[in-house]
Amino acid sequence: MATTATPPPILQLNTRVVVSAGPGVISFVGQTSFATGKWVGVTLDDFNGKNDGSVAGRRYFTCEEGKGVFVRSSQVRLLVGDQPLDRAEVSTRAWAGTSLSSRPSLG
To answer: Which domains does the chain possess?
Structure first.
């Protein structure tokens, strides 16, 4: 019996998320010149980041110095209200193409 990997969370600009550095908003999704693969740039709510949306002189998004961070999509958890949504819950909901931050409470 084959197992199916859980798909990554829906990554859209302005979606509320939480990463290891804290909660924030997705400000960039895509390829970068600093490393291969797909990266997610997050503008954090607090000054727990590493940059201002630029790395090595190249700007990917704009935020205050110390509020920007880049992570892999596997490190991103979506927020609904103030609650992180786990990957299994994301994969069972038909929300592709919509921002979860604008969804009503799941209760």
So the answer is: 16-94 (2.30.30.190)
